[in-house]
Amino acid sequence: xxxxxxxxxxxxxxxxxxGTFSAAAExxxxxVSTVSYTISKLEEQLRITLFDRSQYRPTLTEFGRExxxxxxxxxxxxxxxxxxxxxxxxxxxTSIVLSIDNIFPRAVLVKALDAFSTEFPTVSVHLCNRDFxxxxxxxxxxxADIGLVRIDARFSISGFDGIQIGSxxxxxxxxxxxxxxxxxxxxxxxxxxxxxxxxxxRTPNTQNRIQAQLHKGESWTVSDDDTLRALLKQNIGWAxxxxxxxWKDLADGSLVAPECTSVRESTINRLAVVWPVxxxxxxxRQRLADLLxxxxxxxxxxxxxxxxxxxxx
Length: 313
Hints:
The structure is a single chain. This protein is an alpha/beta fold. It has three domains: about 5-90, Winged helix-like DNA-binding domain superfamily/Winged helix DNA-binding domain (Arc Repressor Mutant, subunit A, Orthogonal Bundle), CATH 1.10.10.10; about 95-165 and about 270-310, D-Maltodextrin-Binding Protein, domain 2 (3-Layer(aba) Sandwich), CATH 3.40.190.10; about 170-265, D-Maltodextrin-Binding Protein, domain 2. Helices cover about 45% and strands about 20% of the residues. The strands form two sheets. The chain has an eight-stranded mixed beta sheet, sandwiched between helices. Helix 5 links the parallel strand 3 (about 95-100) and strand 4. The chain is elongated. Residues about 205-210 and about 305-313 have low confidence and may be disordered.
């Protein structure tokens, strides 16, 4: 391989993209003669003709079109390699692992990652969905660079730094066809515990992990939001669910939030980005934390917050 092949392919690609040798020379801050000589040497090395020069604007030959496709791919890889090298030289990580509490709103995460991928196209992101108590373990062990987690009495702040980025409301919901939703008013906790509870948990509770708001009656464990919503709509049980998961179902009436005399106020979960004190945020990790905080209010439409204000009264 010729030692200047990448430079030659860059000149070749620029000619194709700009349309003429002179435009390519201006774009690359080179003379036209230098551009012309570079292409002549490339054609000589490859032993093919890349351009038809019989008209004012050079046009690609059949071989030229094939080489252009290969050159585009090779140059893109070279550009990514150079970008990763610069990140390493700047002591920035080229990948980020996120440990994510299962209640964290995915709409917020998607919006923040969309913006992040545009700003840092060469930084890879790995997402791990976890139950609440696994997130601190992941972060302190070094498995994850950042944790997205609820902050409550069970969360020990020892060893962590963090910023609160938003909140979500945990509420009791069920199908409008549920017997308790058919009544004339509020029901008691004893009545609630006569019916099956559905619990969102990413991990089977085989190791005595913390189970918040688990009642005495029969319960099923569900590992994902969509299945939980489907079971609720089918009137298979009731559940405590965060409002961002079911707000559309509550709006269209496919689920309801009835009143229980023993559950007067819905729990407000404060959500935070956390990281080890020994590994402070910098570079892409800092920017990702900033984007998560910036996009939290914009992740949901206005009617979502109107509902929240009504339920919080």
